[in-house]
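Handout, section B. The chain below has 329 residues.
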Amino acid sequence: MRRVQMLAALLLVAIVSSSCSSGSGTTPSAGTDSTGTQGADEVVAQVASYELVAGSSQRFIVGLFSNEDGMVSFGTADLAFRYLGTEEAPLDEPRPGPTATAEFLPIPGSPVADEPSPRFTSPSEARGVYGVPEITFDDAGFWEVAVDLEIDGRRRSATAAFEVGDTAHVPVVGDPAPRTENLIPGDPDAPPDAVDSRADDSGEVPDPELHEETIAAAIDAGRPVMVVVSTPVYCVSRFCGPITDTVHDLAQSHGIAMDFVHLEVWRDFENNTINKAAAEWIWPDQTGDPAEPWVFLVDATGTIVQRWDNVATEAELADAIDDVLEEQP
C-alpha cells in the first residue's frame, strides 16, 4: 500500500499541472469518449487516495484531466466500481461493486467558483479532485473505477485501476489517537525546522497557533484536536503548504473551543529522518514510504473521528469541526 500512497501524491501533482500520461505503476488508467475511441482530448482519471482499506467506510478521491484541454473541474461525476481480483487470483469477469456520485473538491488555495456543471479549466481557474465522502470496498485487491460525466454537452468517460489493502497502515476512524508529545518552538531537543520546515533561524514559525500545544496535552484536557501532518517546504504533492494554511485559518476561528496542531514530517530532510511525532500518525509501522499531507480530527474522548488524505477542502474540515463540537457535553 505504501507504494500506492507515494504514487497518488506524484500523480496528483501531474494532474494539477495537466502534464501526466495515461497510466503508471500500480494504478494504470485510460480515458475514452462516448464513442469508445481515444485521442488527445480524452479524459484521463487518476486515483488520488493514499490508503484504501477493505471493509471500512472511507473517502475516495480521483482527479480528472485531458492532455489537450486541461483539468476537469466543477459539478459532479458518476462513479461505478468493479472488483478485479488480486495479483495472484485475477477474476475472469470483474465483479460489479458500489456506485456513487462524486463532487468537485477544490484544492486549498485554488480559486473557488460555484459552477453546476463540469468543464475543462486551466490551473489559474480551478484546481481540484472529485470526491465521495464515504464508500466501502468489500475485498482487498485491485479495483477499477469508471467515471462518467458530461462536459459541454458531450458524454465523457474514463477508467482507473487502484489497490485496496486488507490492513490500514495509518490510523483510521474509530482508533484511539496517538498520545503524541510533539515538538513546539523553543524545544531544545530539535532544530527550528524540525518544528516547522518554514521556521526561521530564530525558531519563529508562520503559524504559531498550530505549535502551542502537544496532542497528548489536548487529549488529557478533554479537548478536541485537529492534527495536520505536513511538510510545507519539502512536500511531494505541493499541497502541504495550502492545507496547513487552511488548518491555521480554522485555528484562528475555532481555537477557543479546541486545539489545532501541525506535525512537521521531517526532523532532518537531508538525511531522510522523520520526526517521531509525525511517524506515530503517518508511518507507525515504519514500512514503505510515508505520504503527506494528512489531516485527522480527534474528539474530546481522544478518538479519531475523521481523516483526510492528500486533498481536503476548508468546507469539509469546517463541517467536521462543527459536528464534533456539537457532540461535546
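Note. The longest strand covers residues 90-106. Compare this with the example in section A.
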